[in-house]
Amino acid sequence: ETGVTQSPTHLIKTRGQQVTLRCSSQSGHNTVSWYQQALGQGPQFIFQYYREEENGRGNFPPRFSGLQFPNYSSELNVNALELDDSALYLCASTFLPGQGAHGYTFGSGTRLTVV
Amino acid sequence: GENVEQHPSTLSVQEGDSAVIKCTYSDSASNYFPWYKQELGKRPQLIIDIRSNVGEKKDQRIAVTLNKTAKHFSLHITETQPEDSAVYFCAASSGLTGGFKTIFGAGTRLFVKA
Q1: How far apart are the CA of A31 and the nearest CA of chain B, in angstroms?
Q2: Which chain A residue is nearest to residue B99, measuring alpha carbons?
Q3: What's the gap in Å between the CA of B81 and the closest CA on chain A?
Q4: Closest C-alpha among A14, A2, A78 to residue A47
Q5: CA distance B87 to B8
Q6: Mean pLDDT over the full length of chain A
Q7: From CA B45, how far away is CA A107, in angstroms rounded?
Q8: pLDDT tens for residues B83-107?
């Protein structure tokens, strides 16, 4: 498996619950970024993980948290789910620092529905 | 905070015509500008990118231009085909090697009519 894989593909949760989304980065990549994509909108940057540490964060509250593991896979955790958290969550991997910027390879996403 | 604005939100062209999508960015530290294509129900895929030390880059029917002074960059698709129909996102990255934080535009839905 060389691409970015995400699990689960779909998830339905109740408001107030907690959720964990998982991502395996592309082979050779060491950096994972998470994005939230609402229907009809562009991906919104949540945070990025590099060398197992958060390496930048967007405008998301602390109830959005993450982890990166030694094998560069990553988890996104969301606590106290709200209805507005319903969206497609995309994981994207790349290699840093490299000799220059590199684009992302995206996973297929996890569709989260909060009811 | 950092922002990327993208226009138009919807673009409809006749097959064979050209399509142009324009973006502006606010963070002067941005140094890497990728473009992604997202077909319905699929993941975004990188189609072309440009770095801040280059003004123009071309790959077959696709070209990107960058004006760092004006903080503008554009995607040009020539000889459009129905399979070019998709949502296109511009993005701007800052950081040591452009991967620190990538901010996306809101997207342009391109329709190519046969």
Answers
A1: 9
A2: A101
A3: 23
A4: A78
A5: 11
A6: 92
A7: 10
A8: 999 999 999 987 654 456 789 999 9
